[in-house]
Amino acid sequence: MARTDVVEPRPPALPSPWATDQRVRLMEEARAFARDVVMPVADRLDPKKGEMPRALIDKMAKKGWFGITIPAEYGGMGLGVFEYCLVSEELARAWLSVGSILARGQGLGTQTIDDERRLALLRKSAKGEWIGSISLSEPAAGSDLAGVRTRAVRDGDDWVLTGTKRWAGFAKGADFIEVLARTRDPKKGEPRSAGLEPFLVVKKPGTFPKGITGKVIDKIGYHGFLTFELELDGVRVPESDRLTGLYGDEGADADSGGFASVQRGLNIARVHTAARAVGVARAAVEDTQAYLQEREQFGHPIGDFQALRFALADMAAEVDQARAYWRQVAHLLDQGEPAERESAMVKLLATEMAVRVTNQAMQLHGGNGYTTERRVERYWRDARLTTIFEGTSEIQRRIISDRMLPRP
Fold first, then answer.
1. For the whole model, what pTM was predicted?
2. I need a surface site. Which of 9, 105, 346, 347 has the fewest CB within 10 A?
3. Where is the Acyl-CoA oxidase/dehydrogenase middle domain (predicted)?
4. Among this protein's residues, is 390 annotated catalytic?
């Protein structure tokens, strides 16, 4: 006989002091979209490593979510890091890559030298018509971006880019690729990052421009969009497409205001990653809660066994703890606080938590968890990446400890 006391998974509310009518509506809208629109697409495409349809991206654009942090006067929602992460957690609960694609808007690739063009691109970004790919890392330069070797050489009114880039997600589907390249070698006494500049490679979505070839990196998870290793061979970029705000203007050092700008961007990215990790881990908790009541052994739902009940309780507690922390750090960033150490801390704690929780969820699913018939294996694969991208856990520990102790 079927049990009548089944407890349905209950998505988290937005408690005081974080709750406002606007935030609650935004969260509920994103939650419904993730459940009704994203989840069916993820269930169909993730097992075959399929790309998210452009139609799905367009639906997100109509919601205005690519412009959450863009000021209202430029067509954005004029909201903060908190709301950006709030939506991202909900979307990542259904499919990590969909929670991630939002970062490819939010004014990315708009910091052009020409102010008029910058404002026009901001409006396009807010509408989801200017979605980009970031190409910073290289085969020998990941966490150590100062080791970038891709060269940008001035040739008249253009720059010519040559080198190899790696981990360029969504590079083919994007409207542009933001490429970090070295315009000159550091001078004596300058930091190693001196001479690094971001360039805007404008392209048609679904293609690579002249001079760029891409090789797909076959990932074990984080499906939804393709990730590439790019070869740049004489890619011409006009001076008007040299960007500002990453390492400052040409020749600026790493202590300039430009570097402060990128540091804030990195802090936001870390909190965003924490929120996405919470979304993935929450998915594992909710699916496991349902499974423990559905699966029967020895004449009982396995959720009747204390060891499994306690494991689920620990999982849920860890997720709620990480969620509270990312909200706190997002609030600090919205208040204008640097929160560099806190951003590293929440990224470290939330992503490591997601790995533990999704791993435990697979264990509680038993043999069924080790199949593609259940979503839990997707959560497990995706959670593992969150400890690596946007700075590995080891990098976060270094950031935290360097702000607590003298640097060696």
1. 0.92
2. 9
3. 134-235
4. yes
